[in-house]
Specification:
This protein is of the alpha/beta class and 212 residues long. It has 6 helices and 8 strands, in the order E-H-E-E-E-E-H-E-H-E-H-H-E-H.
């Protein structure tokens, strides 16, 4: 079944955030920052779509008003690797495969030969999500919807999924992204990808300051 979502194409100027300018492209800046060997995380978030348009649907958390959904994949430090846009009423797990396919950089081969780690919340606790995760070469760490708090003294693992939620919060600080005003989903996606590139540039700039 074809879902109403917008994702980056596999080639051409659409794979960069500023097409044709040559000054700022998301894939180029992402390649400049090393993120190998860290667990990745993915999540989706809902937002308002005031003006309607394509890839818009009833928001189940906003009295069925027009809404849109953003599905995001990040590295272990929160650097955005992929983002897609869909209608608000599309389930998170249905966007997982498209989100992996929209990754702007080629995934490097694992030096240890082990699958990359991927952290997901309980919204992906279902068989289709596990199949997509395994088929994409990831080892999934999916929070169970029936998970109970750990007992005192039990072994605990460090939290890793929070980085994607932090990146979503960073993107939401942009007023033009928090609420979608673009009728064309491709235009809204372009703004999101520009914001993702700016996040990477800020990370590189901060790294340069530390080294100097």
């Amino acid at each position: 079944m074809t879902r109403p979502s917008i994702a980056p194409s596999s080639g051409g100027s659409d794979s960069g955030c500023l097409s044709g300018s040559g000054r700022c492209s998301w894939p180029n800046v992402t390649n400049s920052a090393s993120s190998n060997g860290t667990p990745q995380a993915a999540d989706a978030t809902l937002g308002k779509a005031r003006c309607g348009g394509d890839a818009v649907g009833p928001n189940p958390t906003d009295r069925a008003k027009n809404g849109t959904k953003k599905s995001l994949l990040v590295d272990g430090q929160g650097g955005p690797l992929a983002i897609v846009v869909a209608a608000a009423n599309v389930n998170d797990h249905l966007l997982l495969e498209e989100t992996f396919a929209a990754c702007v950089v080629e995934r490097p081969a694992s030096e240890s030969g082990q699958a990359e780690q991927l952290c997901l919340d309980a919204g992906y606790d279902n068989a289709p999500s596990r199949e997509v995760v395994a088929a994409s070469g990831y080892q999934g760490h999916i929070r169970s919807g029936s998970e109970v708090p750990p007992t005192p003294g039990a072994k605990r693992y460090p939290a890793r999924r929070w980085v994607v939620e932090r990146t979503i919060a960073w993107l939401s600080r942009c007023r033009g992204l928090l609420i979608r005003y673009e009728k064309k989903a491709a235009n809204y996606l372009g703004l999101l990808r520009l914001a993702c590139a700016l996040l990477w540039y800020r990370r590189l700039a901060a790294a340069d300051c530390i080294e100097s």
